[in-house]
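Example 9 (inverse folding). The structure is encoded as follows.
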C-alpha cells in the first residue's frame, strides 16, 4: 500500500507559495529557482510540479493572491457612502503601500502581465488570473449600473454604453498613467529617491484629468472640493490612504 500523502493539497499549495515568496525575496522575481522552492517547502520536485508546471505558474499564482488582496480593498471602496464618480476617483487615490501584499508587488504586477510569461504559463493559472480580472470588472459594472439606475446620471440614453464607456476610460487612464510614471520614475526608484507606493495627491495630473473626465458626464452631483475631503476621510477610515 502506498504511504498516505504527508500534506493535504491545500497545505502543499500553501507551503509552495510561502517558499516561492521567500525565494523571490532572497533573489528576485526573475532569478528564483524551482529547486530553491522545493528545498524551502520541504517537498519533492514531483510534488511541486503537481501544483505548478513552471516559474511562470508561480508568478501567476502569486499574482492571483495579490489581485485578490487588492480586490478586497476595491470592494470596500464600492461600499462606501460616496457617489459613483467619487468611488471611481477614490479607487485611484488608494495608497499602493496600504494594499501591498508582497514586498515585490511592483515587480510582480509588471512581470505577471508580460505576454511571454502569460504564454508560457499553464492554462489553469492563466484562467485563474482571467477569472479574477473578470470578477472585478463585473463587480464594478454592477455597482455603476445600480448607481446610474438609481438616478445618479441625468438623461442617460443608453445605460449599457455609458457604463462601458466610463469603465474603459477610467481604467485605461489609471493603468496608462501608472505605466508612464513607472518609466519616468525608473531612475528615481533605483536611486531610492522616489517610490510608486506613495499615494497620488489631489493635485496630481492624473487625478485632475480623471476629475475632468468624470465631470464631463451629467451626474446629479459633480466632483468638487467637498467630494475630495469626503474621499480622503473615508479612505483614511479604511486605512487605505
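The amino acid assigned to each position is listed next.
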Amino acid at each position: 500500500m502506498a504511504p498516505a500523502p504527508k500534506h493535504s493539497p491545500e497545505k502543499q499549495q500553501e507551503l509552495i507559495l510561502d517558499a516561492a515568496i521567500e525565494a523571490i525575496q532572497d533573489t528576485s522575481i526573475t532569478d528564483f529557482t524551482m529547486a530553491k522552492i522545493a528545498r524551502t517547502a520541504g517537498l519533492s520536485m514531483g510534488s511541486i510540479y503537481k501544483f505548478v508546471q513552471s516559474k511562470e505558474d508561480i508568478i501567476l499564482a502569486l499574482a492571483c493572491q495579490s489581485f485578490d488582496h487588492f480586490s478586497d480593498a476595491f470592494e470596500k471602496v464600492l461600499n462606501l457612502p460616496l457617489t459613483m464618480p467619487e468611488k471611481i476617483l477614490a479607487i485611484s487615490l488608494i495608497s499602493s503601500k496600504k494594499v501591498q501584499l508582497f514586498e515585490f508587488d511592483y515587480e510582480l504586477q509588471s512581470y505577471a502581465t508580460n505576454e511571454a510569461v502569460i504564454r508560457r504559463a499553464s492554462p489553469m493559472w492563466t484562467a485563474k488570473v482571467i477569472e479574477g480580472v473578470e470578477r472585478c470588472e463585473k463587480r464594478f459594472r454592477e455597482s455603476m449600473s445600480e448607481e446610474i439606475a438609481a438616478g445618479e446620471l441625468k438623461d442617460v440614453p443608453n445605460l449599457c454604453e455609458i457604463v462601458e464607456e466610463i469603465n474603459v476610460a477610467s481604467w485605461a487612464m489609471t493603468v496608462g498613467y501608472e505605466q508612464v510614471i513607472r518609466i519616468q520614475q525608473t531612475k528615481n526608484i533605483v536611486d531610492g529617491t522616489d517610490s510608486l507606493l506613495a499615494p497620488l495627491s489631489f493635485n496630481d495630473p492624473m487625478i485632475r484629468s480623471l476629475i475632468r473626465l468624470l465631470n464631463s458626464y451629467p451626474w446629479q452631483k459633480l466632483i468638487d472640493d467637498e467630494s475630495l475631503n469626503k474621499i480622503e476621510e473615508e479612505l483614511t477610515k479604511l486605512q487605505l490612504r
